[in-house]
Design goal:
By secondary structure, this protein is α+β, with helices and mostly antiparallel strands. The protein has ten helices and 25 strands. It has four domains: about 110 residues, 3-Layer(aba) Sandwich (Rossmann fold); about 70 residues, no CATH class; about 180 residues, no CATH class; about 90 residues, Elongation Factor Tu (Ef-tu), domain 3 (Beta Barrel). Helices cover about 30% and strands about 35% of the residues. A six-stranded antiparallel β-sheet has the order 16-12-13-15-10-17, with no helix packed on it. Strands 6, 7, 21, 22 and 23 form a five-stranded mixed β-sheet that branches. A four-stranded parallel β-sheet has the order 1-2-3-4. A hairpin with a 2-residue loop joins strand 22 and strand 23. About 5% of the residues have low confidence.
């Protein structure tokens, strides 16, 4: 086999030798130390070099004439030769075996040297006995702690049902068996608008009354009568407008006739008798005398929709419903979790603004009503009601029964608003109960038994009326655990 000679220089150390060693491709490597000024390599350094050579699948040997290096090489498990020729002519395999045995013997002797003079050596049979007992103890501990069991008693469930009247008032601070439950208030400002059709009927003027009016000049100046000039009757007090302009000649007593029409929509009652028109609006009222020599005619009636009393009542009811609807839409986001509104308590606490209703004597087809108000209402918390129901049901709970968790159901059938901020809630409360049992007592009596015997003992003596089912953990285990805390009992 090819042998590579790796000469160690005076400046070399373990790191540089490791770096040079990794480039070697031969099957055997001789690390040749210089005769003078040899670098200092410790036992750990030689062990690292040996391990590196082993990782490269290379046999490593040391060539040195230093006696100290020989001892370090033996301790490191390296082959040691005095010269290169000696190494090349020697059987490395035999050399390695001798060095390995010698190294082991040296290690054994060193270990023995560490033992105290008076230290006693435990016999092998005693060590085996102690180990066996420890193994048995661990196995017994596992036998106690590892297995588990779940026992479902399947107890008969009994419904506890009661119809109750729960008082609620604002003076109650917390659920109380006598006082009932707290009642809370909420107020919201809302506004609404409704449009209502008019269903009433009234007579209104259709065509205006008209006729000729004589204008008489009271001055010596000509007077112009403009179109639209107003003349009046006194009883009844109606107004008439001049249909077209006219010029009254100068001089007292001169006259002029012009056509006029009733202008207030009085229909047939505007047909006034002759002589009814007696005055003219200023500025001409002091310069001109007026009269109708013939009766006025042509005025007529027609029927028109108008406001009826029921229309206004219906509009108020509609806006009340609209305001309540707006309140209900807003109150959902303002109530706390579990808050239940008492609809019977809704009331308008304050009217902030509202529109005036139209007059009854005016024709109109529909009208609009606006209103802004503050609505108040009462509410209760369902959690308070459940807590109160538990208090009442507990007073009638049989002493040999206990309540199953999370089975309470409270239903509100009706609410009576007694007075302001007081109410009575008609409720139905239901929950499930089972016979009482002592889980630890049952576990104590069935521990270590087979499942069949334990089932019979539970059914006949420990919990009469039960239908127990036992599940072992792991399933292949044959008995219930010996430790009671490893047995879980469920009703």
């Amino acid at each position: 086999m090819k042998t590579h000679i790796l000469r160690c220089e005076q400046f070399d150390d373990c790191t540089s030798l490791l770096d040079r060693l990794k480039w070697v491709k031969a099957g055997r490597v001789l690390l040749v130390m210089p005769e003078k000024d040899s670098p200092v390599l410790s036992r750990q350094d030689l062990i690292r070099l040996r391990r590196k050579a082993s990782a490269l699948h290379t046999d490593l040997a040391l060539v040195s004439q230093d006696v100290g290096m020989k001892q370090i090489a033996h301790q490191s498990g390296l082959r040691y030769f005095i010269s290169i020729d000696d190494a090349q002519n020697s059987d490395w395999a035999n050399g390695r075996e001798i060095k390995s045995v010698g190294h082991r013997v040296e290690v054994v002797e060193r270990v023995k040297s560490y033992r105290k003079p008076d230290e006693r050596i435990i016999p092998g049979w005693l060590r085996y006995l102690i180990f066996s007992l420890a193994s048995l103890a661990i196995a017994a501990l596992l036998a106690v702690l590892l297995p588990g069991a779940m026992v479902d008693l399947n107890l008969p469930q009994v419904n506890q049902i009661d119809d109750l009247i729960a008082p609620a008032n604002e003076d109650c601070q917390k659920p109380d068996l006598i006082s009932g439950i707290p009642l809370y208030g909420i107020s919201i400002e809302v506004e609404a608008s409704v449009t209502q059709n008019a269903t009433g009927m009234i007579q209104v003027g259709d065509k205006p009354a008209s006729g000729l009016v004589t204008f008489t000049n009271l001055t010596d100046q000509p007077i112009e009568i403009p179109a639209g000039a107003v003349v009046r009757s006194i009883e009844p007090a109606f107004r008439f407008a001049v249909s077209q302009p006219g010029n009254l000649p100068a001089g007292p007593g001169t006259s002029l006739q012009l056509r006029v029409e009733e202008m207030d929509g009085n229909g047939a009652i505007g047909n006034l008798p002759s002589g009814a028109i007696v005055a003219m609006d200023p500025l001409l009222g002091f310069s001109v005398a007026v009269t109708n020599p013939q009766p006025l005619s042509g005025g007529s009636w027609k029927t028109s929709p108008a406001l009826a009393e029921t229309d206004l009542q219906n509009a108020r009811e509609a806006i009340d419903q609209a305001l309540r609807q707006v309140f209900m839409e807003q109150v959902e986001s303002k109530l706390p979790d579990g808050g239940e509104l008492i609809l019977e308590s809704l009331q308008v606490a304050e009217i902030l603004s509202e529109s005036d209703p139209p007059p009854y004597d005016r024709p109109l087809a529909f009208f609009e009503l606006n209103q802004s108000v503050v609505i108040t209402a009462d509410y209760y918390l369902h959690s308070d009601l459940e807590q109160w129901a538990v208090m009442v049901l507990d007073t009638s709970l049989p002493g040999d029964h206990e309540v199953l968790p999370d089975t309470l159901l409270v239903k509100v059938n009706a609410i009576e608003q007694v007075e302001d901020r007081q109410a009575l809630l008609n409720i139905n409360a239901t929950r499930q109960t089972i016979p009482k049992f002592d889980a630890y007592h049952v576990a104590q009596h069935i521990r270590g038994m087979s499942p069949d015997i334990a089932v019979e003992l539970i059914r006949s003596k420990l919990v009469p009326g039960s239908q127990p089912e036992i599940r072992l953990i792991p399933a292949w285990w044959l008995w219930l655990p010996f430790a009671p805390f490893r047995i879980s009992i469920y009703g």
